[in-house]
Amino acid sequence: MxxxxxxxxxxxxxxxxxWQDVFGNHEECFVKSIIPQEALxxxxxxxxxxxxxxxxxxxxxxxxxxxxxxxxxxQFEYVPHEDTWDxxxxxxxxxxxxxxxxxxxxxxxxxxxxxxxxxHVVEYL
Length: 125
Fold this sequence. Notes:
Shape: globular
Distance between the termini: 21 Å
Radius of gyration: 15 Å
Structural class: alpha+beta
Number of strands: 4
């Protein structure tokens, strides 16, 4: 799949998201986003703990995308809860390697300024 320049430059825009309130605790929306190549699992990058700042950063990117995909799976796919994390990690690798837009959940917490925002959003669901 070949990406256009418009697909590559669109970061997450909160004003375009279809936010839904979740019990007054936080808000969520759903998007399709391209997963960056640097979103590598701990095994893929031979992560050995918190003494490596660059590997820590890569691990956090990977974790944020897996949690976002995991949230989407839990919301829209009827699978046993214990299987969803493994599904999310496999899906991240598949979509990252193909560079195809992957559906995911984005949450916005009232008290947090550091919520995850996907880098390359191609569609707001």
